[in-house]
Design brief:
Layout lengths: L7 H17 L10 E3 L8 E4 L4 H4 L3 H15 L3 E7 L2 E6 L1 H12 L13 E5 L11 H19 L3 E8 L4 H13 L5 H4 L3 H24 L2 H12 L4 H15 L2 H14 L3 H25 L5 E4 H4 L4 H10 L3 E2 L5 E4 L7 E5 L7 H16 L3 E7 L3 H13 L8 E6 L2 E2 L15 H19 L7 H21 L7 E2 L2 H4 L7 H21 L14 H11 L1 H10 L4 H20 L8 H23 L10
Parallel strand pairs: 5-6, 5-11, 6-7, 11-12, 13-14
Antiparallel strand pairs: 1-2, 2-4, 3-4, 8-9, 9-10
């Protein structure tokens, strides 16, 4: 809340505590008073749960509710009346309070946004591989990471937005090798292909060539001999060779051998291989940059696995000295986490090389050295839940100063109505293609309605882009991150229901009210004389009051869908007011002024809330 407006929920809790003291001679903490928003079917703004007071009052809940209700109304001016339903005390806040509250926030363009608290956090998101373009799964990751960053900033934190680019390893070499063997010198420019899509095609091509090679090998004498023993055990041939693919790649595949040789050459710094790696990664980075720009995101710091893959060995040595890790006879180093219901985890191979866990330990330490953040959030799909449980436990045991601030924002996978996607088989929906599809869906919708035909072609394209991007972003963010979801492009652009375009249209409607009010010369100062609130107006004011609360909850629970839900419900309530009550056409000047003022604040809050989700609000649609 603001310094000039009483925090009504805090006042209610404090007043209830004072009432319990006065009526029942018992001291309770105000924070222990359980408050809920009153259910729609009952009159009231907030409901006090009185059942915890039955023991000290030695009375029935209904009687306690009546006694506390009378005390509150008599003693506190902000509480106008009350009712008791089955032991629940419903309190009606005075119209005067809500009017004062609205006046206080009317000119606050940043209402709900907290000032800097001098604290710093880091959010890591996207973190793609450089062997393929960004896809639908990355979009959910990116949108969650970006909105989480915005939410922490709105709560007063300085946020470092980062990613670690997975730019090395056998998968990267597969793309490189395929281009080297089959590319014939082609480039993104010569083929008129977006540069990251160009590289991704060679990753798919490698898999296709490898599968062809594997099928031939399965029919060879060697392949038949290996399967013959399994056939005696009753194993199915197709199922066996599906599971055996990695072993074939590592032990028999000619393409596999070439890819591993290329990786070894890169690790040895062989000039030709490194130059090829730089060229192809450069193509991918150029493509990524274009996609990030379309999505409206940017990063403060990039880390590259090619720089960090050797990190972590020092922290392992420190762990050995502290007795946190144990070294086996073969030289490998392990962490025993069985005491916290996890298994033994290798952190260093017997040949002294790092594993992913080693790198992540070292990278976390490096980031803390770079920025001194108190929190680190990793936005990574739920397939890696166990990895991050282990990582956080190890950093905690190492006594790292940021260990208590580590969080894995685990999210479910995204499907399309057509089903799952597989990147190696080329069935993934690229992020750019999906963006183009939702914008095209937005174009179709606006063409059918004819709402923007009066604008210039440039203005129309900008409106369509904003609608399409809002459709995409909102549809994904509105789902709790931990849930698996299906993205439907057609449904996302619907102007009715829980969609981004619906909220945008509500904002455009409000913007139109403001413009017309100026033309009509409406005197907003006359809103001060408006005294009796309609139930819909009160409902909107209560929702506006809860906006800072929603922002805080969304940040602390790492769930941007809370703000998405808030924006939808606020837009829906305003649209009901629009249909049920006159605004500019109100016959009484005080009603006209008050509702215009209320609409202005709703528009400002919708714009702020949607911005926290990375969504732009058009002024016309």
């Amino acid at each position: 809340m603001t310094s000039t407006t009483v925090d009504i929920k805090q006042l209610l809790q404090e007043s209830v505590a004072q009432g319990v003291q006065a009526l029942y001679d018992t001291t309770i903490e105000p924070s222990s008073v359980n408050l809920n928003t009153t259910r729609k079917e009952f009159e009231g703004d907030y409901t006090v749960v009185v059942f915890p007071f039955t023991k000290v009052a030695r009375k029935k809940p209904d009687q306690i509710g009546e006694e506390l209700g009378n005390y509150l109304v008599e003693q506190v001016a902000e509480f106008e009346r009350f009712n008791v339903v089955k032991g629940f005390l419903n309190i009606v806040v005075s119209d005067a309070y809500w009017k004062t509250f609205l006046d206080t926030i009317t000119d606050q363009k940043n209402y709900g946004i907290q000032t800097s608290n001098g604290r710093k956090v880091m959010v890591e998101f996207s973190s793609p591989n450089t062997n393929k373009p960004l896809h639908l799964g990355h979009i959910r990751n990116i949108l969650l990471g970006w909105s989480t960053s915005k939410l922490w900033e709105a709560n007063g934190f300085e946020v470092v937005k980062t990613q670690i680019v997975n730019d090395r390893g056998i998968a990267i070499c597969k793309s490189m090798l395929a281009w080297q063997k089959f590319g014939n010198g082609a480039t993104p420019e010569s083929t008129a292909t977006k540069s990251d899509h160009f590289v991704g095609k060679y990753y798919v091509l490698f898999e296709q060539k490898f599968q062809d090679e594997y099928k031939l090998w399965q029919a060879s004498e060697k392949g038949k001999a290996i399967f013959s023993e399994k056939a005696k055990e009753g194993q199915d041939e197709t199922a066996f060779f599906k599971k055996y693919k990695n072993q074939y790649f590592n032990n028999y595949s000619a393409l596999g051998k070439e890819a591993r040789t290329m990786l070894q050459a890169w690790e040895a710094g062989e000039e030709t291989t490194v130059n090829l790696w730089k060229k192809m990664n450069g193509w991918v980075y150029e493509g990524f940059s274009t996609t990030y720009k379309k999505l409206g995101v940017e990063f403060d710091k990039l880390y590259y696995e090619s720089d960090t893959y050797l990190l972590g060995k020092d922290i392992v040595n420190q762990g050995l000295e502290k007795g946190i890790f144990e070294q086996e006879e073969d030289g490998s180093v392990w962490a025993d986490l069985t005491d916290v219901k996890m298994d033994r985890k290798i952190v260093l191979r017997s040949d002294g090389t790092a594993v992913y866990m080693t790198q992540d330990l070292g990278t976390a330490q490096l980031r803390y050295q770079d920025f001194g953040v108190e929190k680190m959030t990793y936005v990574v799909a739920d397939e890696q839940d166990y990895h991050f449980k282990v990582l956080f436990e190890l950093l905690k045991r190492m006594g790292e100063p940021y260990a208590d601030g580590l969080f894995h924002l685990s999210y479910g996978m995204v499907d399309l109505p057509s089903g799952k996607m597989k990147s190696r088989e080329g069935t993934v929906v690229d992020a750019d293609d999906l963006v183009a599809e939702v914008i095209e869906e937005a174009r179709k919708g606006t063409a059918e309605r004819g709402d923007i035909s009066a604008y210039t072609p440039e203005q129309q394209e900008e409106i369509i882009r904003k609608i399409g991007m809002a459709a995409l972003k909102y549809f994904i963010i509105k789902v709790n991150p931990r849930k698996r979801m299906t993205f439907d492009p057609k449904e996302s652009v619907d102007m009715q229901g829980d969609t981004g375009p619906y909220i945008q249209y509500s904002y455009v409607r409000i913007f139109g009210v403001g413009k017309k009010a100026q033309t009509m010369g409406i005197d907003l100062s006359k809103a001060a004389n408006y005294t009796q609130l309609d139930a819909l107006e009160r409902d909107i004011l209560v929702q506006l009051y809860n906006f800072p609360i929603a922002i805080k909850e969304a940040a602390t629970t790492y769930d941007p869908s809370i703000v998405a839900s808030f924006c939808y419900n606020l837009a829906k309530t305003f649209n009901k007011l629009w249909h049920d009550l006159p605004i500019l056409n109100a016959k009484v000047e005080t009603e006209q002024a008050f509702r215009t003022q209320l609409a202005s604040v709703v528009g400002n809050v919708l714009k702020t809330g949607m911005d926290l989700l990375g969504i732009e609000m058009p002024e016309r649609m």
